[in-house]
Amino acid sequence: MNSSEPSTSPLLKIRDLKIRFLKHRADPFLAVKGIDLDLAPGESMAIVGESGSGKSITALSLARLLPEPPARVTASEFQVNGRDVLTMSEKELRKIRGKEIAYVFQEPSTSLNPVLTIRTQLAESLQLHRPEVKDIDAEIVRWLDKVGIVDPQKRLRAYPHELSGGMQQRVMIAMALCCEPKLLIADEPTTALDVTIQKQIIDLLIELKASLGMSIILITHNFGIIRGIADKVAVMFRGEIVETGTTEEVLGNPQHPYTQALLDCVPRLGAKHKRLRSIDYAAIERAL
User: Which of 33, 70, 126, 161 has the fewest C-beta atoms under 10 angstroms from its C-beta?
Assistant: First the structure.
């Protein structure tokens, strides 16, 4: 292959991922039950499922952020950008956290430090992962402007409580992206926001994905927000991936009863049902 051609190596390649939690005087609890994940550079994936299905702990395991013990993460293959994450030392892991894999969580008010200014918090990330940056303030302003913060120069000295929830989430996105990661993991990034702000944040992620060429994993329970941002979908139920496919395939022709049940829970304008359908877990269990 010509060295000038773009690499076709996967950004993420995981086989038989299992996550156990050790319990006192009991057998370990198997929370994630041998799933496979693949993600190409520039590709985006939505991992969809209810609370407790294993989505968030799967996302946290990608950068080894689960405390071990009580967690125990195993896989037959666990590669991020061609490197085995499971064999990395803590020092090596600190280099990929933020620089190669960055996170945006659902509660910006609890993720941001309330006693530090926005500038201090973004500067810490830049100094750790991009020490070559000379003008820290200019770089922070650039990223705050990129994520749609009005008057970014003024916001440098602001504290988190002085910003709205939507602005706080934009700051979190700027903090994640200023280190120029290859993979952004957005874990329920719109849950705490009202519907109008939710759309703004999703539109922002779509725009940034297109302009920066980064990969995204979107963790959500809501099928209603994934169209337009996700190239493909993995549906999780009780620690297992029960259905995968392109977004159009899964939304247009869901095969698994659990996927069908989740889609039935999405409100639709003009629907004739007076109330949303309940999920028939007994039928889903029979299909597993």
Answer: 161
